[in-house]
Amino acid sequence: xxxxxxxxxxxxxxxxxxxxxxxxxxxxxxxxxxxxxxxxxxxxxxxxxxxxxxxxxxxxxxxxxxxxxxxxxxxxxxxxxxxxxxxxxxxxxxxxxxxxxxxxxxxxxxxxxxxxxxxxxxxxxxxxxxxxxxxxxxxxxxxxxxxxxxxxxxxxxxxxxxxxxxxxxxxxxxxxxxxxxxxxxxxxxxxxxxxxxxxxxxxxxxxxxxxxxxxxxxxxxxxxxxxxxxxxxxxxxxxxxxxxxxxxxxxxxxxxxxxxxxxxxxxxxxxxxxxxxxxxxxxxxxxxxxxxxxx
Length: 295
Prior knowledge:
Blueprint: E1 12-14, E2 30-36, E3 41-47, E4 54-56, E5 62-63, E6 68-73, E7 79-84, E8 89-95, E9 102-104, E10 110-111, E11 116-121, E12 127-132, E13 137-143, E14 150-152, E15 158-159, E16 165-170, E17 176-181, E18 186-192, E19 199-206, E20 211-216, E21 221-226, E22 231-237, E23 244-246, E24 252-253, E25 260-262, E26 268-272, E27 277-282, E28 289-291
């Protein structure tokens, strides 16, 4: 068993284990990033792919800002970024891809809008976005591909038009960003400007009571977990306009009280409450989900 100190909410992977990752590549080593929000640092572990054993990276833990909340890595594994909730900054690190050791990027930490929480990098690794909960907005940055230095995207931060944004996801084409607003019970749709990373609001969509986690799949579907009504909503994403259409049968009843996670290939959804783990299979043809046998 492994004891990982700290209670940061946003555990990250390198290469990132989300829908922007191209898949497992044998030349990669995998590292686990664990933000410790009570001690203001980041623990890094190498993952043994044969046994699952964790080995602390040299120099771990690494100092961050006040209350590190969530960590994201670029798809190529070169850089990692940490949202510091209380400091309203983003700590930036280059990653030694052999050992997992971190070196802070010149100029880090970088200013963010108030209270950054969850974030994601575009599939091409050029742009980084974090929800800024205290500003009801999303902060956007361009990433220098050589140094990892962050530069604010034009007109950042971008208002969500909702209240208390919580999390965000980017579709696998890199065209659209979606952010949940858990106090206004909706999500905001943005178009990502390819040349600059600037976001253009496409409006909001109702997303249930207290929507929190969400993710997009390579099959063109968006899933949103609403903890207030214990339901998962599924939408098809129009790849031309970013418009959302509810799939047949949505919303789907769940037992939501804690965040959901999705498997690397996007085939399964898992939801955890105080006593059980619930699993759902994703139908890649029509976007519907169904409970896994025994779940």
